[in-house]
Amino acid sequence: MTKRDLIDEVNKRFPHLSRKDSEVIINAIFDSMVDALAQGDRIEIRGFGSFVVKHRR
Prior knowledge:
- This protein is 54% helix and 11% strand.
- The protein contains 2 helices and 2 strands; from the N terminus they run ααββ.
């Protein structure tokens, strides 16, 4: 699934939102996740999974 697929899915589930609004929502979610991971935080989305930065050699 791509970011575009996610935008399309939001647009299908919430037809009152414009495609641009759906794109803004998805981008805001990803930006928040990137910021949290960059600060060393762990992200947990119950029922989906967790994200953490792992440093490799």
